[in-house]
């Protein structure tokens, strides 16, 4: 049996396993389970540039999600597929860079207090919650699309899950940019 057929037969389980692994990596990085010395050391300028690069990645990913939704509403399945695939690639690049930086230097502390800090923490909390919720939804939707011929996708949960995943994913990307602005521009 080939991989695509196995995923097709076990899409929900595959999405659950991939989600668990991805979220475990995020929490392991945030809790600094892997010693920073065990990771390859990039120059400080590269590590310092990661938040700025990730803000750009989030901005581009937000655009690709919106354009992907628009494409499928217009019936352009191929464009939708390419844009959502690009969004996932951007998300993966963001995640690798984020996990690397957090593993090395830990989470970024917010430099302000008071009302500004309260607003920041509220937005950060929503962003993190949406990001966690999106992981299994996105994996499930993408795996359904990947493992089924286009003609069969309407008979799957892809559309139903995508209608939830896409806006949540877009909001998460947008709030990621807002978090960046709070830390690096506003505070």
Automatic annotation (TrEMBL):
UniProt-listed InterPro entries: Cyt_c_oxidase_su3_a-hlx, DUF420
Pfam families the UniProt entry points to: DUF420
Top-level taxon of the source organism: Archaea
Keywords: Membrane, Transmembrane, Transmembrane helix
Annotated TM spans: 52-71, 83-100, 120-143, 164-186
Protein name: DUF420 domain-containing protein
């Amino acid at each position: 049996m080939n991989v695509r057929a196995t995923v097709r037969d076990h899409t929900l389980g595959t999405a659950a396993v991939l989600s668990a692994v991805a979220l475990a990596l995020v929490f392991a990085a945030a809790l600094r389970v892997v010693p920073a010395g065990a990771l390859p050391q990039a120059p400080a300028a590269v590590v310092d540039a990661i938040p700025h690069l990730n803000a750009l990645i989030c901005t581009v990913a937000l655009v690709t999600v919106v354009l992907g939704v628009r494409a499928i509403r217009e019936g352009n399945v191929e464009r939708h597929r390419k844009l959502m695939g690009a969004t996932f690639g951007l998300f993966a690049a963001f995640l690798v860079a984020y996990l690397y930086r957090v593993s090395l230097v830990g989470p970024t502390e917010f430099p302000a207090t008071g009302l500004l800090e309260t607003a920041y923490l509220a937005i950060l909390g929503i962003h993190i919650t949406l990001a966690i919720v999106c992981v299994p939804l996105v994996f499930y939707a993408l795996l359904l699309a990947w493992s089924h011929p286009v003609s069969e996708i309407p008979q799957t949960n892809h559309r139903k899950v995508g209608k939830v995943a896409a806006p949540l994913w877009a909001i998460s990307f947008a709030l990621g940019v807002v978090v960046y602005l709070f830390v690096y521009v506003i505070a």
